[in-house]
Known about the structure:
Layout: H1 7-10, H2 17-24, H3 28-37, E1 45-49, H4 55-62, E2 66-71, H5 74-87, E3 93-97, E4 111-117, H6 125-138, E5 139-150, H7 156-177, H8 187-194, E6 197-204, E7 209-215
Parallel strand pairs: 1-2, 1-4, 2-3, 4-5
Antiparallel strand pairs: 5-7, 6-7
Amino acid sequence: MFSYVFMKILETRPRSYDRRMDKASRGRVRAIKQAVAAEVSAGMHVLEIGCGTGELAGLLCSRGATVEGFDPSLSMVAMARKRIAAEGVAGRLTVSQMGVEGMDRLPERTYEAVVSTLVFSELTEDERRFALKHALRALRPGGLLVVADECVPRSPGRRFLHALGRAPMVAATYVLSGATTRPIRDLPGELAKAGYEVDKEVRSHGDAFVLLVAHRPAEEVTA
Length: 223
């Protein structure tokens, strides 16, 4: 059983990260990013939380979006900038080194979509709350939030099997990288508490993975 916790090990090898992740996940990670990109329309101004090497950002640009991405890893950002040069998208894609703690500096009501894949499960609950708050602030009214990440299965049986299969991978990853990920128990609930309206929830991989599409509510016009 593949677990996305292994990405923490592969992040130490940014040059081969995308290739290794695609191989280790049997194409699932690439498919996840394609599913996220499919929710974004041409012409949108998009913010990507945790852009990594820029693979998703590149897919978004190929769909006609303009993307700003950030990632805390300097080596990942360096690889993303190489991708920008190689793919000729310098006019539509910019990346910067920053963690979610810097999201309070984002401009208000700027983006038509905010996207994230396999990032929120790396954050604590407080960090997710902070990121969701400032992503909402940065979105235009009606703007989209698209998140794909690990989640806790809903049934007791699936939760038990998921935890049992995941435990040795978590231990090995922590020993090798000093980091891990945490499946999220109720991401739709967290989005709702942060002020989003959830439009779509798609569960997969044994109910242990979720794709969520939500939006910032349009503001009421008062007379």
